[in-house]
């Protein structure tokens, strides 16, 4: 508007200034938009790398024997391998911001379930005590975000969601043992 008015009144210096300002703002917008796209592309690329790692023979082997269904037996080294993997996913989610494809993905689902089951059996606390460090905070934060998206923020609905998932735990571990 100012550019058109300046050009109409033959105030070429003002018109040039407004045109320069407009082009500068437009260029800045393009740079910000490209940065946003690059950030999303890097996050998605990292996610694909994590997905490949999740389906690797080593990780499948760890998943198959981390916990015997219907028992209290846990292989701590395999559990740590899996939880460390999910720490990477949770950290990527934290750094990249709210990118829905992460928590809506299969990996997000697995992260939430592994954390829930390990926490309910005292494994998270035991590993924290063992390392004397509050390990797995990123995955816990991711779990709370996931739980909020799935069940809402009321304690009652969260407990109901967790109770429903815990009812399927034996089948979850049986299925993990089959992969």
Q: What does this molecule look like?
A:
The protein has helices at residues 2-8, 12-54, 57-65, 76-96, 100-103, 106-120, 123-131, 137-151, 155-166, 169-178. The chain is mainly alpha-helical. It has 2 domains: 2-34; 55-178, no CATH class.
Main sheet record:
none
Number of DSSP strands?
0
Q: Give the structural class.
A: mainly alpha
Shape: elongated
**Series of secondary-structure elements, N-terminal to C-terminal:** HHHHHHHHHH
**Strand share of the residues?**
under 5%
Radius of gyration: 25 Å
Domain count: 2
* Tally of helical runs: 10
Provide the residue-averaged pLDDT: 89
- Show unreliable segments: none
Q: What percent of the residues sit in helical stretches (DSSP H or I)?
A: over 70%
What is the CA-CA span between the terminal residues?
64 Å
Which features characterize this protein?
mainly alpha, 179 residues, 2 domains, elongated
């Amino acid at each position: 508007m100012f550019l058109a008015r300046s050009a109409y009144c033959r105030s070429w210096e003002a018109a040039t200034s407004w045109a320069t300002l407009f082009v500068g703002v437009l260029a800045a917008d393009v740079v910000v938009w490209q940065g946003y796209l690059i950030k999303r592309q890097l996050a998605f690329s990292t996610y694909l790398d994590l997905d490949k790692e999740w389906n690797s023979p080593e990780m499948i082997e760890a998943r198959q024997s981390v916990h015997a269904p219907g028992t209290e037996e846990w292989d701590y080294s395999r559990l740590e391998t899996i939880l460390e993997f999910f720490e990477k996913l949770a950290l990527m989610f934290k750094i990249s911001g709210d990118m829905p494809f992460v928590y809506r993905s299969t990996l997000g689902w697995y992260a939430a379930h592994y954390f829930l089951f390990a926490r309910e059996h005292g494994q998270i606390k035991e590993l924290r005590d063992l390392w004397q460090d509050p390990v797995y905070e990123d995955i816990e934060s991711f779990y709370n975000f996931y739980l909020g998206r799935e069940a809402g923020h009321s304690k009652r609905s969260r407990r109901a969601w967790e109770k429903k998932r815990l009812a399927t735990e034996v089948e979850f571990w049986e299925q993990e043992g089959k992969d």
